[in-house]
Amino acid sequence: MASRPSAGGFRAFLTKTNALALAVGVIIGAATGALVTSLVNNVIMPPIGWALGGIDFAAMKIVLGTNAKGEEVAISYGLFINSLISFVILMLVVYLLAMWFIREEPAAPTKECPFCREANAEAASKCKFCASAI
Fold it and tell me: CATH says 11-103 is which class?
């Protein structure tokens, strides 16, 4: 008979792997996506529509006809434009957050070998490429 997993084993799984960080990232991503969608639909698009002569992007569509039930069949390209703007803003936010959190370490100081012109650690006394004394 197989043993039942314990709560301690699950806690160890969450802390030893990146599962907890992934879960937090997914939750924050979903919340950010909803926030950006609201920003685009309720703050950005109304002034753009107003500036373009009162256009409602959400209502922009090409009506193809009606189906057998009498419902309108249309290509809603205005909703696609809203989604595209939401996507671009969301990717910009993700990029900026990534650049803020993921910073590269400054390069270690190096010195150049006078013989082969390769970069070596500043404290090196021998070139790791040509074995010359530096």
Answer: mainly alpha
